[in-house]
Amino acid sequence: MATQTDSRVPQIGQRNKKGQLVTDPNELFFLSPRTPSFLTGSEVIREAIRRASVDFSVAYPITPQSEASSLVGELYAEGYVGDYMRGESEFAVMGECAGAAFAGARVFTTTAGPGTLRAFENFPMWAGSRLPIQVVFTVRGINSPLTIQPDTLEIAFMLETGMLLWHAESAQDLFDFMLKGYYVAEQPEVHLPIGVICDGFFVTHTKDMVMMTPEDRTLPHYDPYRSPVVCMDMEVPPVRMMRDPFVMKSNYISYMTHASWQLEIRAAIERSRKHTIPLLDGLIEVENSDAEIMLVASGTAVSQAREAIRLFRDKGVRVGLVKIKTLRPFPTEEIRKATEHAKHIFVPEFNVAGWLAREIKSTIDRNHRVVAGPHVAGGMTMPPEIIVEEIEKHMAHRRNKELVHG
Amino acid sequence: MKKRINIRMSGLGGQGVVTSAHLMAMAAAHEGKFAISNPFFGAEKRMAPAESYVRIGEEKIYDRGELVFPHVVMVYHPQVITMGKSYTMPFYSGIKDGGLIIINDDIELLTEEEKEDLAKKKVTVYYVPATKIALELAGTELATNMGMLGALAGLTHAVTMDGLDKALQDRFGKKYVASGGTATLDEAIKKKFAKKEMLLQKNLETIRRTFDEAEVYAKKNPTFAVNVS
């Protein structure tokens, strides 16, 4: 696609003002040398943003993302981020992000838990306005009594906002998802906001080994002329729709416009698949798909499941795993196929609601096979020993029932 | 070394529990082992319970979060035991059979009941006056965590002195910001030691002292050494 280029913006092969080489995304992701670094998740966020040619970022403190947003501020001081400001609240932050994105900037921010919910109204607005903003949600508990610890309940609220949602298992995922996320979210046929989700503390405050791309290479700048809707213009959609909303005119045309636009957002999410699959090596990862017992999970629950599978292996029991990388688009067909031989499907989750189990139950056949759990909530850890114990308890219960009922 | 060693560090806010977990994991990473460290704390404040966890192993480690079933429990402050400033009750809850407890004090802090319970689990309890040693060698109780690390390494050989030295250089030898609070604390320490080199050297001396003492103990107690290292 032919695009206009701004001579002030360094193009692929040129260096930016920090001396970083603007690099073709696929080359950056797959061909550039990677070096191991031992970092916390917050530092990983800083390092991904250093390599992402971000124009604008807004910060507002909330644990466990405060360190990350303050580190992005340091990047701004060093000259790696175009502009940086502090917001007045999470609601204001997301509004300010929208303003910058409408004006054609690549935007980054972070929030967590109660901050996500405070900002909430903005997320479907971003999606409807086709703003490819990236937020890292470092999820934490949202409900009273107050907690600052990891709990994934807030993701349930995000599922129908129209955003792309990728759930990182580890610091490595976080680094890769942030860079690749911009690439997918900014495709003209996608052009949607993306939430890169990581579990607070389990990822943000954990020091782990991450394979990093070179510090002196960066993504090409965002090209606002590749947007499927025009940059901010008061007379054409999407801004026209906001200043003069259809809702003010109750007639069939207005309902129809609204409905078809919502469908288009969902279609755009689905269109992101073809860009995402080669970048993430599929929307899911599968291990031991022939096993009778499968664990299906996203985020840190995947890591805990991997350890539980090792414990089962030591006991001579073969257990399989499906790691879900993207929650939107939801890998429906992939999960169906990966679990077709499974007799028991367990969904370990770090929340009280079991929203992931619900998603899976609503998309696969013979869904009586799905067990919502084991669960922990409120910041509790899910030790692999407990996953094993819960599964064994459940299986024993099933066997007893079969004995009683023949 | 065991295939995996899981360490739970319990202390109070401001004692450097989080820093020492990171140092331990960095040391292990320097030696080519797999390591993960993470802290857990409430709203950050001095003297409130703070815990961090280190997992070191020979294969990739996925497990994260609070360590419920540790091999080693480290107590950085007597109040963890005497005032219940711990995330779990008792403070050694979940410890594996044949495990190790390292306590920063030189007086007995356990009840008879607790001692019996731990004996049944074949748990070794090792006392090290880390704060006293820190005051003596580094001139500040802020080096308590170094004393604790030395004892841990000397008893378990999960990491070497060389690995700890490299981790110290990484952590304090260059600019490092974990959070506003940590940065302030780092600055306070740096002023105390006047020079960064002095800080590194004094910290290392503190580690060396408790490491050597712990190594002697481990050699004298071969059954314990078999269980742990």
TrEMBL record, chain A:
It comes from the Bacteria. Transmembrane segments: none annotated. The keyword Cytoplasm does not apply. Residues 291-382 form the Pyruvate:ferredoxin oxidoreductase core domain. The keyword tRNA-binding does not apply. It holds the Pfam family PFOR_II. GO terms for biological process: response to oxidative stress. Residues 48-267 form the Pyruvate flavodoxin/ferredoxin oxidoreductase pyrimidine binding domain. GO terms for molecular function: oxidoreductase activity. Keywords: Oxidoreductase, Pyruvate. This is Pyruvate:ferredoxin oxidoreductase alpha subunit. It comes from Leptospirillum ferrodiazotrophum.
From TrEMBL, chain B:
Pfam families: POR. GO terms for molecular function: oxidoreductase activity, acting on the aldehyde or oxo group of donors, iron-sulfur protein as acceptor. InterPro entries: Oxidoreductase_gamma_subunit (IPR051626), PorC_KorC (IPR011894), Pyrv/ketoisovalerate_OxRed_cat (IPR019752), Pyrv_flavodox_OxRed_cen (IPR002869). Residues 13-176 form the Pyruvate/ketoisovalerate oxidoreductase catalytic domain. Keywords: Oxidoreductase, Pyruvate. SUPFAM superfamilies: Pyruvate-ferredoxin oxidoreductase, PFOR, domain III. It comes from the Bacteria. PANTHER family: PYRUVATE SYNTHASE SUBUNIT PORC. NCBIfam families: PorC_KorC. This is Pyruvate:ferredoxin oxidoreductase gamma subunit.
